[in-house]
Amino acid sequence: MDLVRWLPGLTHRDCAAARLQATDGARSVQGQPFYWRDVAAPDARLRVLVVGGLHGDEMSASSLAMRWLALADAHPAGVHWRFLPVLNPDGMFRPAPQRTNARGVDLNRNFPTPNWTRESRIYWEQRARKDPRRYPGPTPLSEPESRFLHAEMARFQPQLIVSLHAPYGLLDFDGPAMAPPRRIGRLHLDPLGIYPGSLGHYGGVHRGMPVVTIELPSATQPPAKAEADTMWADLLTWVRAHWPATAAPSPAPVPDPVPSPDPATEPSTAPPPEDLPWTDPMLDTSLPPENTPR
Ligand SMILES: [Zn+2]
Questions:
Q1: What is each CA distance from 175 to 14, 139, 184, 186, 205, in whole angstroms?
Q2: Separation of 180 CA from ligand 1 center, angstroms?
Q3: Most buried of the four, 3, 17, 121, 212, by CB within 10 Å?
């Protein structure tokens, strides 16, 4: 796959330098592999998973993941990073990139949050008014793309997930009680609330893995290099404040991505969220459509 064709701002040189690997076994609905790359400091004290392109029409998010991969490669900063820059290849690698996967599922509504069957239905029918771009799928983890990411969370055991999106121009945080980042580059913390099936709700609220969600201001224009670098520096500053390298034990080695991820099997232990109906500013009709830069 020629990522340069699809990711704005990416050069062939960047792409070669990234040394992405394609998964051996895990595949999208249409049989495409997922790309990944690990960058680990020899003294890594923290595992961070960086995910981009869960929504196929948010190319800027994948471009930023690639820029950050290059920065991590140059200076991993005591972290074991795993980058998954293009999680919805079927949605992105097409003449008109689309948010959903090839089966029309919004992968960021397909994670197994508590009471998913009931709540995702209510959410989609009542809050999203059956917007096809937000269809949560027939069952949690019904899609190979969400299953792959779910399996990666189990294999890699990230202590932090950074999820890259666009185009709302803000910063969100889900997770255990800790001070979220207030600002990353020009983006300021503006909590979106939680909704059924999202990665932030599943990872951050249900599993207790902190999830930083970055919503870039444009889906098609990635941040300029200087801004991307400032964002990276701000992220590292926040990471260091919360995970002082000397205070944490060395993490155990983790396996590379392996074929055939399994569906969720872990029991649901967290109580269901109490703040129904969900607040979701993404559904505010005063906001621009998702692939329109603000
Ligand atoms: Zn998105």
A1: 33, 24, 17, 22, 5
A2: 20
A3: 212
Beta strands in the chain (DSSP E): 21-27, 33-40, 46-52, 79-84, 160-165, 170-174, 183-184, 187-188, 211-215
CA of 215 to the centre of ligand 1 (A): 7
Decide: 182 and 106 in contact? Cβ < 8 Å: no
pLDDT-derived band at 259 (thresholds 50, 70, 90) equals low
195 C-alpha to center of ligand 1: Å? 13
Q: What is the pTM of this model?
A: 0.85
Map tokens 């872990």 to a residue.
Answer: 266
Q: Which fold does the domain 3-244+268-283 belong to in CATH?
A: Aminopeptidase (3.40.630)
Among 281, 262, 257, residue whose Cα is nearest residue 38 = 257
d(CA 232, CA 215): 14
**Residue 124 gets which letter from DSSP?**
I
Q: Amino acid identity, residue 57?
A: D
Q: Is the peptide bond before 253 cis (omega within 30 degrees of 0)?
A: no
Residue 75 CA to residue 260 CA, distance in Å, equals: 32
pLDDT over 70 for what percent of the chain?
84
Q: Spell out the domain ranges in the chain.
A: 3-244+268-283
